[in-house]
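Q: What does the predicted 3D structure of Glyoxalase/bleomycin resistance/dioxygenase family protein look like?
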Amino acid sequence: MNRFHVHLNVADLSASIRFYTALFASEPAVLKDDYAKWMLEDPRVNFAISSRDRASGVDHLGFQVESESMLAAIGERLDAAGVASQPETGAICCYARSDKVWVEDPQGVKWESFRTLGEATTYNGSARACATDGSSCSPDMPAERRAVEPPASCCAPDSNCC
């Protein structure tokens, strides 16, 4: 079964671990000096946080799949829709080795679809796209690889439409 994935950048890892451990009523499944991950069952979520010298907030969202065919189906669906994707094979990221497909939505939110192949002893692999700046697993997607250009805002200031 697939699992939704959320990865947040946090300023204070210890405080964030205490908060999310209380919120989820569960200890992290993976705990490192710069990273923690909870594998929640209800709802099925792979929730990760890291403290890697990046602005706090959502780093990326995604789907963790269980098979190569499920990952291939996501890539094919994106290709059929004309969405440019960035595949990675055997990427070392977040203390795991994975095959991945990255895209960016029209707002610039990075989406990672991935299949975990095994554990890794480091946060990232220096030669992999996921380690472009050495601090994050989400690659810097070139503008030409984005899904579509963001639409213009439909709401005027103070219109209360949203």
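A (community wiki): The structure tokens above were generated from the sequence. The two ends are 34 Å apart (CA to CA). The longest strand covers residues 110-119.
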